[in-house]
Amino acid sequence: MMPEIQRLKKSGNLVFVGGEVEGYSLEQLMRASAELLGRGTMATTYKAVVDRQLILTVKRLDAGRTAVTGGEAFEQHMEAVGGLVHPNLVPLRAYFQAKGERLVIYDYQPNGSVFNLVHGSRSTRAKPLHWTSCLKIAEDVAQGLAYIHQASRLVHGNLKSTNVLLGTDFEACLTDYCLAVLADSSSTEDPDSLAYKAPEIRKSNRKLTPKSDVYAFGVFLLELLTGKHPSQHPVLVPHDLWEWVRTIREDDVGEYRRLGMLTEVASVCSLTSPEQRPAMWQALKMIQEIKESAMMEDRASYGHS
Prior knowledge:
The chain is an alpha+beta fold. It has helices at residues 26-31, 71-82, 114-119, 131-151, 191-194, 199-202, 210-226, 238-248, 256-269, 280-304; strands at residues 15-16, 33-39, 43-51, 54-61, 92-98, 101-107, 164-166, 172-174. Residues 31-305 form the Protein kinase domain.
């Protein structure tokens, strides 16, 4: 039985989004065996096993931490979010709301988060991810963000390494996208999330924008490159940023040029002024150009060997 959720009124029904067929009922979901995956600033997340074939991720939004949007506004918002379909977004399948109760249901992703990949079981002296893994994850995440910005008027609003999950083929997929607008702005910010927040929204309750997602992406990219949590990132000018990455990755001498190019993307994305940051599609293009030039160089060097 799903912990704490059993008190739900059976009045409302699950609303399936994005053309999803009704494959299970609220009652089946309530009876599912559930495992607590984590508690975030605005939701508690469970893994729910409805039957052996069907495993879902259920987010239970914390009524005290979410803004009091009317039922209809919530529905419209969830319909818009459910309309987003992309290989680098964890599919949103359904939602539920009744008095004081809101659930958001996603596909379950089996391979954990990028946070676990970068910081998980590794010792403090462990090396950061190989540069090709950094490039692959960065490209996947940039694809997902660029798609959100281009396909809708929505923004992710809460990009961080715990919200990037690894799919069945270890592709990076964004989760928790476009839910941040539902958060109550007066609720206390989780210090781990604060480091990803752009300066313009950190100081005031300014609205989230595509450019604030770009900032979070820059911080996330630095986290991939250094293996350091954003709360440990020093405040540095772009040139010194590269020096810092290089000292951390001193064993990767042969890859310095490529690492330098990725660090440059991270530094332009995390500039203080939103006007100076690139749009997400431009950041994606930079990453794809790095990938293409690396592939051409590798081909050329194989040809000569």
